[in-house]
């Protein structure tokens, strides 16, 4: 019986590995039709009997403002062009901060956030963290950096039920994602830690100050020319 169960478990694991690899490889070329987070929001609305109208329109890389691309990197993951999905320095800093108590600080890279939003459920558990690491590794190996950021910008939530750069730009500012100004882009990036509470279109003092910090970081990174680094080869993870 134990041998039988072990074989069944091994077979299920093999199917999961093959299926997840094929799915991630497919989404390198095909726009994901939705995300796990969108499904979760819809199910929550049914449970709460509070209908929600999900807004999302896939927008290709060329039709998204470079200002938004840079603002998100400056805000969320400044080592994005170099790392292989995990920023170990940021993880160590977050662990040290959390051990001291107070507010919990995360250290998720853009790649990890794509993994969570696209494939996984909300919450904290060792199983979810393990799956997040698996999908993050697959994304980093099978997708170029430009694709990772493209999917992120089309999957992020920017208000209750507002997903993706195009829907966010029109919802908050009445413009297309291609026409976002530097200030508008920084405001959108500023609310990403808590987009269902903070508003990019009606920013409070904290969001406005955070957006100002993001614009300064964008300048320090060298402006939108920084995006060319996404096309440069990275050092192999085992090279140190």
Account of the protein in words:
The protein is mainly α and 240 residues long. The chain has ten helices and two strands. The protein has one domain: Biosynthetic peptidoglycan transglycosylase-like (Penicillin binding protein transpeptidase fold, Orthogonal Bundle). The chain has helices at 2-29, 36-47, 66-76, 88-99, 110-119, 126-142, 145-155, 165-173, 182-190, 205-220, and strands spanning 157-159, 162-163. Strands 1-2 form a two-stranded antiparallel sheet. Helix 1 packs across helix 6 (126-142) and helix 5 (110-119) packs across helix 6 (126-142). The N and C termini lie far apart (46 Å).
Estimate percent helicity: 55-70%
Q: Find the count of extended strands (DSSP E, 2+ residues).
A: 2
Provide the gyration radius in Å.
19 Å
CATH architecture: Orthogonal Bundle
Strand order of the largest sheet: 1-2
How many H/I helical runs? Answer: 10
